[in-house]
Specification:
Elements: E1 3-9, E2 12-17, E3 22-25, H1 40-62, E4 66-78, E5 86-98, H2 102-116, H3 118-123, E6 128-137
Parallel strand pairs: 5-6
Antiparallel strand pairs: 1-2, 2-3, 4-5
Length: 139
């Protein structure tokens, strides 16, 4: 896996992933940025959310469960002093589908958290991570 980061101007950077996708990052105005794009740490949090959402959907689909939607909201706290690592992250899942059993969804979340989601497993080395889920049944 590769990624190249190129400084543009001010505190704006462009990341080009190994698969050729571009992601813009910017800093806060008080740090010389113009607030035109997400901060790098926001992207790290988004990456963890995307990683676990991907796992949960894949696990439920492979189990032939009728999943129709998955949303993960993350709430994070960071250390007060440098390095300002994440110290606490709360993953809040909303999984929508037909006849989804709570224990099945919770098992998928657990498998992601403990085995498959490299991003959240890595972040768990500095952060206390909790998981919550809401299941929405649709007709």
């Amino acid at each position: 896996m590769e990624c190249t980061i190129k400084w543009m101007d001010g505190m704006t950077f462009i990341a080009e992933t190994g698969t050729g996708h571009l992601v813009t990052m910017d800093g806060a105005p008080e740090a010389g940025g113009r607030n035109l794009a997400p901060r790098p740490m926001e992207l790290m949090l988004a990456g963890a959310g995307g990683c676990t959402a991907y796992d949960v959907v894949l696990i439920l689909k492979r189990g032939r469960h009728d999943i129709r939607g998955c949303q993960v909201r993350l709430e994070a706290e960071r250390a007060e002093t440098d390095p300002k690592v994440f110290t606490r992250i709360r993953f809040i899942y909303t999984v929508t589908g037909r006849n989804l059993k709570r224990e099945t969804v919770e098992r998928a979340i657990h498998l992601s958290a403990e085995k498959y989601c490299s991003a959240s497993i890595m972040l768990a080395r500095t952060a206390e991570i909790t998981h919550e889920c809401e299941i929405v049944d649709v007709e």
